[in-house]
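Minimal example, chain plus flavin mononucleotide.
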Amino acid sequence: MNSTAIYREAIQHCRELLDRAQAVNLDEPIDFSLATVDADGQPSVRVLLLRGFDERGFVFYTNSQSRKGRELDCNPRAALCFYWDALREQLRVQGKVERVSDEENDAYWEKRPRLSQLSAVASKQSEILEDRQVLVDQVDELDVRYENQPVPRPDHWYGYRVVPSRIEFWIGRDGRMHERSIYEDSGQGWASFFAYP
Ligand SMILES: Cc1cc2nc3c(=O)[nH]c(=O)nc-3n(C[C@H](O)[C@H](O)[C@H](O)COP(=O)(O)O)c2cc1C
């Protein structure tokens, strides 16, 4: 198989796995852990929702002024980890991170519930909040300000796409005889191989 065919196979496996996960999650959005690294090399990890997936990569939305946003500014690389206990399957992805287009951002923003839009506008994500009531009041104030009109998407709220350079499928098997199958672009094209569990 050539590099493109190997990558397509990896994406197809991801698609099938995400579909199965969606089925066991009763169509709830799929969450995953996102790891980023700051300028000093300190990693941090948090749970996010997967909001898009196709052959271009894995998309999530957030506040670009948050801790993760600042870390991605100085180091636009990330690692994702999904685990589904009901499936005994893990999916790990790593790669470069890029911004999604403004058309995609706007289309996704418009689908969000109004309260989520208001709280996304109000939230200075990751900054110190002295009193939760401050946020509640800000959301109420914005609700009045945008009464009977759409809530505009803040410029700093948008999607990121993790463009994979490595994808690992892990399947739990009895007696820790787990299966690990890896697809990787080492810089000279995609290859696939297995790893010891
Ligand atoms: C199930 C779940 C889903 C979440 N989804 C998102 C999300 O899609 N976008 C987001 O910005 N934060 C989401 N969060 C909150 C993040 O975990 C995190 O608290 C926030 O993004 C701030 O992270 P940071 O300070 O590292 O930037 C989610 C949390 C949980 C528990």
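Residues 3-113+155-194 form a domain with the Pnp Oxidase; Chain A fold (CATH 2.30.110.10). Residues 59 and 161 are 4 Å apart (CA to CA).
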